[in-house]
Amino acid sequence: MGNSRNLLRLASIVIACSIIIYNTEKVSGQCGGSVPALISECGQYVQKAGPQVPPSQGCCSELLKFNVPCACNLITEDVANLISVDKAVFVADYCGWKLTPGMQCGAIKIPK
C-alpha cells in the first residue's frame, strides 16, 4: 500500500512538472528563476499529502529568484489542482515572497 501511495505521489509530481515546464516555455524564461530548480527544492513542501512544514533555505532561495506577477502566469488550474494551495501560500509567505491577500495568482486566489 505504501508503495502505491509513493508511486501516486511521484506520478503527480511528474505531471505537475510537465505542466509547469510547458508553461515556463510559454513565458520564455522571463520570470527570473529556474522552474526545475524550484520543483526540486520546493516540490515536497507543496504536495497535497503530508503535514505543512516550513520550507528549506534552498527552497526559499529558489522561490525568491522569481518575479511574482510573471510567476503567477505559471499557476494554471491544472497546477493548482495538483498541489496544496494552502501549503503553497504558506511557503510563499514563509520565504517572504509577497502575495497580497485577495490577489489572483494564476488560477489561485490568495486567501485573506
Automatic annotation (TrEMBL):
Residues 13-105 form the Bifunctional inhibitor/plant lipid transfer protein/seed storage helical domain. Keywords: Signal. Residues 1-29 form the signal peptide. Gene3D superfamilies: Plant lipid-transfer and hydrophobic proteins. It comes from the Eukaryota. The keyword Signal applies. This is Bifunctional inhibitor/plant lipid transfer protein/seed storage helical domain-containing protein.
